[in-house]
């Protein structure tokens, strides 16, 4: 049987949900391995032995997140010549989110055989213009994403090239509407995660769940270390709603993931 290695980064669970779903749907033709790139592991063997590689990530300002970019950079030589499918999750818009990573991979000599965007619930919880909606809204989005995953997996299995956003217009829109400004904002915000010390009770949930060990509890209070990757896991998990990043204040409603 052919082998599929799926590599994903997921802040709040949406991308893990999609990567898991795609692995399930592709398991008819592939033996699958699901790998979280935030795990401190050597993935060389999973790349070398794969007939197809799935790379899945959430979009941040039409850009792939830092941990996925770091993964691709680290394994650039191993990815050369590989067939790759890209699954990008977003709230509603990225222009060329999947293709922006696709172009990087193609420059490395990989072959992007498929790329798709999946609209998922919003996790940017402290940003007032995008409110978090839980309950039925999540179920509606998941039902639509499930259908899209079904079609995407079927196209891959049939060997159809389905490459979302690999055109000049989405490229221009993704770049000029977001990516051009995003990288500067990203660099700035990395060191600006805020913990409201009057609310923090030092429960360590943020420390334990941060994918890059950016939070450390000292003297009963969580302190950011300046290396945030903007995944919003801590903002959405904090039981005291003490953490904020892009918004001015911690969120009124938190996003607890697709399986909450
Ligand atoms: C910092 C940040 C920036 C985001 N930028 C966008 C965006 O440009 N377009 C969009 O549609 N969604 C955007 N989102 C929403 C997420 O991409 C979306 O909710 C994604 O499915 C979250 O995946 P995860 O649960 O695997 O982390 C952003 C979220 C965050 C945290």
What is the rounded Rg?
A: 18 Å
Termini separation comes to 35 Å
What's the domain count? Answer: 2
Small-molecule binders here are: flavin mononucleotide
What is the number of helices? 9
**Tell me about the biggest sheet?**
6 strands, parallel
The string of secondary-structure elements, in order, is EHEHEHHEHEHEHEHEEHE
Strand order of the largest sheet: 2-1-3-4-5-6
Assigned CATH superfamily of the largest domain: Flavodoxin domain
Coarse morphology: globular
CATH topology of the largest domain: Rossmann fold
* Fraction of residues in H or I helices: 25-40%
Assign the structural class, choosing from mainly alpha, mainly beta, alpha/beta, alpha+beta, or little secondary structure.
alpha/beta
Provide a compact summary of the structure.
By secondary structure, the protein is α/β, with parallel strands linked by helices. The chain has 2 domains: 2-120 and 127-182, Flavodoxin domain (Rossmann fold); 190-244, Alpha-Beta Plaits (2-Layer Sandwich). Helix content is 37%, strand content 20%.
3D architecture notes:
There is one protein chain. This protein has 260 residues and is of the alpha/beta class. It has two domains: 2-120 and 127-182, 3-Layer(aba) Sandwich (Rossmann fold); 190-244, Alpha-Beta Plaits. It has nine helices and ten strands. The mean pLDDT is 96. Residues 10-15, 58-62, 89-94, 120, 122-124, 178, 230-232 line the site of flavin mononucleotide.
């Amino acid at each position: 049987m052919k082998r599929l290695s799926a590599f994903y980064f997921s802040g709040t669970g949406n991308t893990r949900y999609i990567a898991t779903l795609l692995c399930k749907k592709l398991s008819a033709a592939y033996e699958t391995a699901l790998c979280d790139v935030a795990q401190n592991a050597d993935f060389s063997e999973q790349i070398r032995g794969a007939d197809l590689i799935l790379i899945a990530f959430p979009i941040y300002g039409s850009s792939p997140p830092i941990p996925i970019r770091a993964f691709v950079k680290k394994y650039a030589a191993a990815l050369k010549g590989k067939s790759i499918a890209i699954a990008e999750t977003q709230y509603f818009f990225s222009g060329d989110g999947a293709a922006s990573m696709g172009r990087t991979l193609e420059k490395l000599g990989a072959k992007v055989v498929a790329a798709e965007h999946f609209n998922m619930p919003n996790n940017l919880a402290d940003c007032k213009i995008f409110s978090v909606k839980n309950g039925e809204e999540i179920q509606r989005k998941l039902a639509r994403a499930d259908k899209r995953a079904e079609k995407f997996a079927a196209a891959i299995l049939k060997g159809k090239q389905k490459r979302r956003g690999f055109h000049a217009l989405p490229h221009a829109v993704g770049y000029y509407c977001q990516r051009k400004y995003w990288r500067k904002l990203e660099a700035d915000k990395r060191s600006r995660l805020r913990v409201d010390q009057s609310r923090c009770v030092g429960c360590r949930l943020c420390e334990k769940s941060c994918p890059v060990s950016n939070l450390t509890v000292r003297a009963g209070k969580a302190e950011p270390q300046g290396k945030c990757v903007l995944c919003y896991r801590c903002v959405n998990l904090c039981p005291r709603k003490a953490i904020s990043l892009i918004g001015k204040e911690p969120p009124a409603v938190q996003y607890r993931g697709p399986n909450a």
